[in-house]
Design goal:
It is built from 2 helices and 6 strands. The longest helix has 20 residues. By secondary structure, the protein is of the alpha+beta class. Strand 2 and strand 3 form a beta hairpin.
């Protein structure tokens, strides 16, 4: 009985680990356009990024609160207006619209 329980727990852990193991900062990309969708998700289109099975160069940033959303939006617009590169923290999965799901954004000087 214990072996069956530990086996099931081990299998569940093995299924969870790859998702978090794939989370990483992306390559540097250029913002080509951005908008806020009706649900307050921030949608950002880029040049120079891969597709990892999602829609190429398309990102959706869903923040957990208004402050984070405002900071992400300001970062994306700053990069767009100044021509700076950005990186996203990418979980390795696709989000809304089949776009890359990002949970953080950084601007590169």
């Amino acid at each position: 009985m214990k072996a069956a329980i530990f086996g099931a727990v081990g299998m569940a852990a093995a299924l969870v680990v790859p998702t978090s193991a794939n989370a990483q900062w992306t390559v540097e990309m250029t913002v080509t356009s951005a908008f806020v969708e009706d649900s307050d998700a921030i949608v950002i289109y880029t040049a120079g990024g891969g597709n990892n099975g999602c829609v190429a160069n398309s990102w959706v940033f869903a923040a957990t609160n208004e402050d984070r959303r405002a900071r992400a939006w300001a970062t994306a617009l700053t990069a767009l207006s100044l021509g700076k590169k950005i990186k996203f923290w990418f979980s390795g999965s696709c989000g809304a619209f089949g776009f890359h799901q990002a949970t953080a954004i950084q601007i590169i000087s």
